[in-house]
Write a structure and sequence with these properties.
mainly alpha, about 60 residues
Length: about 60
Amino acid sequence: MTPDERVEHQRQMRSFTTYRECKTYQNKRHAVMAERARHAGLVLAQQRESGCDKLRARGSLQ
């Protein structure tokens, strides 16, 4: 991600109120990033932790 994309992604992640909204966005975003990596001849690394899971553990998501 570019620095601007990262800032927008973080803003978007903080805007969700439900875990389902967050996971839907996260899955779509991951698919876009995987496609960009594929076009660049790279393989996207497997996600270690879910940002949505972290937000839910902190009580930010229902």
